[in-house]
User: What shape does this take?
Amino acid sequence: MTASIVISGPPAVGKTTVAKGLAAEFGLDYLSGGDVLKEMAAEEGFEPSGDDWWDTKQGMQFLSRREENPEFDKRLDERLAKLYEFGTMVITSYTLPWLVRGGIKIWLDGSHTSSTKRMQSRDNMTPEEAYEVTKRRFDRNRSLYKNLYGFDFGGDKSVFDIIIDTDDLGAQQVIGKAAREVRALL
Assistant: This one.
């Protein structure tokens, strides 16, 4: 396979797990847009570490800085778009599906309740904390991308080749379904 795959969806829907599974299935490289953004945060003097860094005080400070200065996200998206166009990658990104052409674009859909449960077990949070974090992340990202690019994150799914409802499915089931649907597009 020479085309890239980009996976998007709300926070804690399983993007990373599915992306890594598809990368292994198709012999592609995996890249997390969030990891590249953490590299950029480190360049700005932040100390990002761990998957839950975004939910820390410092992670929220970086998000506030991103909201004030869209150059972080624009630079991130430019980097990811170049890698995506090169091919042979599976990339997780909130924004890339609206910004690139070609390849295969997957939206992982899921209820807020389901995302809350995933985050709760993944990050050892109370149900209330996980609910607030996933809601705050989704709402702030949606606002950020609407202001920055004009698209409706989570609302406009017209750019996607594949949409998978992850509710009531385990990780392997989602990976299997995504792999079958990718194969059907090849």
Observations:
- The helical segments are 15-26, 33-43, 57-68, 71-86, 96-99, 112-123, 127-149, 171-185.
- The longest helix spans residues 127-149.
